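S.,

Sequence below, as promised.
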Amino acid sequence: MSISRRPDGKLDVSSETFDQHGDLRLVVGEEKAVSLVCSRALARASPTFFNTLLYGNFAEAEKRKDGDWLVELPEDDPYALCLVLNIIHGRFERVPNRLSELDLYQATVLTDKYGLTHILRPWVQSWLNPNPTISADVAAAHRAWIAWELGDHQLFSRTCTDLLKHLHNKDLTS
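The prediction came back faster than expected:
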C-alpha cells in the first residue's frame, strides 16, 4: 500500500504489492487498502499471532472458493501496517529515517497487537528524539507508551516523571 497524508490529515491509500510472489491479500482499515504479501514472512515475523492465524484452525487460514486468500484487518491503521509490512518484507529503502511521534505511537500499538515490536528495534534510535521536550498532553502519554513498548527505560522514566510533575490537582479529579 502506498500511503501519504493529504493536507486535511486523511490518508491517500492505494493497493501495493509487498511480495511479487505473495500468496495472501490483506484488506486494511476503513479505506480497505489491499496489500499482496507473503504469508510465510508474516508467520516468521509473528509466530504468536500471524503464524497461528494463518496456519492454525481459524477461518482466516482458509482460501476463498475462487482460490484467493484474503484476510481483513478493518481496525488497523494502514500507514502503520505499511511501515510494518515494508520491514517484514525486507523493503528497508521504504522505511523512513524519521517518523512523527504519532506515527511511531500507531506503529507500536500495531506491533504490540501482533507480537511484532522486535522488528522496530533497528530504527528506534533514529525515530526517537533523544532529548524530547515533554509536556503533559496526549503526545507525552504516547511517548510514554512508545518508550515502554520499545524498552527505552530512560525515556520512559523521564517521560513519566515529567508527566507527574506537570499534573494539576484538577487533572487528578476529572
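The mean pLDDT is 85.

Coffee later?
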